[in-house]
Design a protein that fits this description.
single chain, 173 residues, alpha/beta, Immunoglobulin-like, 3-stranded mixed sheet, 2 helices, 8 strands, rod-shaped
Length: 173
Amino acid sequence: MRIACFAMGMACLGMLMPQGLSASTPPVSGKSVMSDVVLGAGGTLAGQLVDGRGRKLAGRVVQLHRGAKVVARVQTDKSGRFVARNLPGGAYVLTSGSARQVIRAWAAGSAPPRTPVQVVLVDQAVVVRGQAETEVGFLGLDTTGLIIVGAVAVVVPVAIAASDDDDDPPASP
C-alpha cells in the first residue's frame, strides 16, 4: 500500500512540474563561440561594427588580439566598416567597447565552403526584458519554483496517507 501511495505522489509531482525540466537544456556558459571568416587578398580581414539594434557604429576602435598581444588596431568608418591588413590565418579575438568575438581566419582558398568573407561585431547587445540569459537553480527552477515543488512533494503523500482509512481494525483476541 505504501508503494502505491508513493507511486501516486510521484505521478502527481511529475504532472505538476514544468515540462521544460524533463527536456535536456544546455547549460549557460561564458565561453565564446568561434566564428569562421575568410581573409581577403593580402591577409585582409573585413568587418562591420554594429550595436544591438543593427545601427552602424562609426569612429570606434576595433582591436585584434592573438593571445595576449594586440596585432592590429583599426577604426571604423562612417558605415561602421573596418579593415585590418597583412594578417596570417589563425585564431583572433576582436574587441571594441563591450563587444568581444573569437574568430578563426582562413586564408583564401583554404576555407570551408560558404565561409563568410566579413565578420559582424555586435556591441551593446540588446536584452529584451525577461529573455536575458540567467543562471538557473536546481532542476532549472528559481527559488519560487523550488518552494512550490517542495510543498507539493510533501503535501501530496501526506494527504494520501491521511485519507488511507480502508485498513481493517486489528482483530481482538
